[in-house]
Write a structure and sequence with these properties.
The protein has about 220 residues and is an alpha/beta fold. It has two domains: about 5-150, Rossmann fold (3-Layer(aba) Sandwich); about 170-210, no CATH class. The protein has ten helices and four strands; from the N terminus they run H-E-H-E-H-E-H-E-H-H-H-H-H-H. The longest helix is centred in the first third of the chain and has 16 residues, at about 5-20. It starts with a helix and ends in a 14-residue tail after the last helix.
């Protein structure tokens, strides 16, 4: 069994065991590899309970997403200021009205680097939070996800927490940096990474590391 097969089967089993009951699933799709893999997995496990949602009408590879499962298109916020907040608020409203669980598509690299928006923390289930981005891409390729979707993950996308500066750093370098910060690898694992790349990633990590401890919880008082 390949690593990609182990990941796909492992997450499918995790979903089956951890997302139960009568609630449906709402998966925000962006046209990128994370949402493509997450949407595919949710539809494999809960084909009659999963609905994708996209704010707008220009979903990348729309036909592929609709071949995987149901996708609902909603009006995007009519203003640019705080659009991310209102988009996630709308997703949550749909979940409340239709008794659905809001699924997030954040991968392990994003989760540790913390570039995601605070608004996206409204998602209560994160199936891919333990999967490195490089493995997400390999799983997508194994499943036959269109190249236009996987290629988009290597381009700048500020709305998804990937500014131009980060897009210029190879994905493997970012993952090496995060593995060192997480104690999974020794500092020597960063040999060959430029000072400029290290400084940028260190700045990003330092700015967002507080998110790893959210939500802050009060003390237990007996």
């Amino acid at each position: 069994m390949t690593k990609e097969q182990r990941i796909i089967i492992g997450i499918a089993n995790w979903l089956r065991n951890n997302v139960s009951g009568d609630l449906g699933l709402l998966v925000p799709v962006s046209g990128g590899s994370d949402s493509a893999l997450c949407f595919w997995l949710c539809n494999q496990v809960f084909p009659n309970k999963t609905v994708g949602v996209y704010a707008g009408a220009d979903l990348r590879e729309r036909k592929w997403f609709e071949s995987v499962g149901r996708v609902r298109f909603i009006e995007p916020p009519s203003f640019s200021s705080n659009a991310e907040i209102f988009r996630w608020a709308k997703f949550l409203e749909i979940c409340y009205q239709e008794r659905r669980v809001l699924i997030g598509t954040r991968n392990r690299m994003e989760d540790l680097l913390g570039g995601y928006s605070l608004a996206s923390r409204l998602a209560t289930v994160l199936p891919l939070a333990g999967v490195w981005k490089s493995d997400v891409l390999k799983c997508c390729e194994a499943l036959g996800v269109p190249p236009a979707i996987t290629d988009s993950s290597r381009k700048a996308d500020p709305d998804c927490g990937r500014p131009q500066e980060m897009a210029e750093i190879p994905m493997g370098v970012i993952e090496r940096f995060l593995k060192v910060k997480s104690g999974l690898k020794k500092p020597s694992h960063l040999r060959g990474v430029s000072k400029a790349q290290r400084d940028y990633l260190e700045k990003m990590y330092s700015q967002n590391v507080y998110k790893l401890d959210l939500p802050e919880k009060g003390p237990v008082i007996e």
